[in-house]
Amino acid sequence: MGTALALFLSSGVSDVTAAVVSAGWGTLAVVLARFAAVAWAGLGWYAVFPRGAGPTLRDCISLRFVREGINTLLPVAQVGGDLIGARLLTRSGTPGGMAGASMFVDLMTQAVTQLVFTIAGLLLLMQITGDGPMVRTVAGGVLIAIPALAAFYVIQRRSGHRLIEAALSRFAAGREWRALGAIDVLFENLRRLYGNRARVGAALLIHLLGWVAGTVEVWIALNAMGYSISFLDALVIESLAQAVRGAAFVVPGAIGAQEGGLIALGALFGIPVEAALALSLVKRVADLAVGLPSLALWNLMERKGAAPAETDGTETVREGLGAIRARLGRRSGATPLAPAYGFSAARNPAPLSSDNEAGALQKCA
Question: What is the spatial distance between Cα 218 and Cα 211, in angstroms, rounded to a whole number?
């Protein structure tokens, strides 16, 4: 936050403000483009599910907005929203193992396509500027990202299954975990999803097109400010700026990192600092315009899901109490109660109904 503030102050707040104002209609167009991009990413998530065994397209798109809002506006290292999205997906009838596996596959397809997008931007940058510090820095980042991405994939396959089972057996009461079948079910669904190569390929294509379409934000905003750049130039800026944003995932909203990256990249194409910062602000406006309604949607989903969960809990309490009462009745039926502390046991105790039992527990809770 301090870095971003220092950049704005050093560049002149009035100059940056004037550049933002000059964007005019471009800001609205960028916001609309962001809404379309998030919905398109929801289609990419939907594509990984087997036909007839997953949620509706509407559920995937709405939950993709929730994921986007949480990851963009909350300090969750850009992954907390994905976990919450998978949990909410189970409320639409998707089994937990399938929901969790789909989240991992969706993250994998997004990461792979972003790497391809970054490499494409790097190659274009090399053609435009030749070798230089920027090219070498991005190339070094790509070399680090490739093995990290490969490790993420391996963890989701059979080797990762064995590794997690061994860790649970050693440190976390693995027998209980295996009895519940949580890990086995998750990896079985991962094998099922990755085994459908046509659907994984479709998801990869959808996400790759989504990254390329995101270039429209940069192209519209800069041209609206009066800086005529080509779509390929905008693609270089967008691809490498997204790589910088991804590398700064631990910083909420990549504040400071996005601004610095856009200044450095804009300088390669003759874009002044104030215009680069104005571009960052336009992108921040899109973050808020999409993120705030998405957080409100998340709150609504949580509130709607609370009532059914409470009802299910009451039914579970009743069933459990009924089972306990039946077992106690079988054990004590042949043996009369003995006197205790000088008082005789009641011969015909009044029964307590299951409704009263559940109600009493609810009051205690």
Answer: 12
Residue 141 lies in a domain: yes
Helix axes 215-224, 197-213, angle to 10 degrees: 10
Residues 84, 90, 95, 99: what is their CA dihedral angle, to the nearest 10 degrees?
-30
What is the pTM for the complete model shown?
Answer: 0.76
Give the C-alpha separation, 120 to 239, whole Å.
8
For 234-243, the pLDDT digits (tens) are: 999 999 999 8
Number of separate domains in the chain: 1
330 assigned to some structural domain: no
pLDDT tens track for 130-176? 777 888 888 888 999 999 999 889 888 877 767 666 655 555 444 44
> For 114-141, how does the pLDDT look when each residue is reduced to its tens digit (9 = 90+)?
999 999 999 999 998 877 788 888 888 8
**Nearest to residue 242, comparing CAs of 149, 116, 67, 152?**
116
The domain in which residue 123 lies consists of 10-298
Whole-number Å distance between alpha carbons of 257 and 237: 14
Whether 326 maps to a domain, the answer reads: no
Whether 260 maps to a domain, the answer reads yes
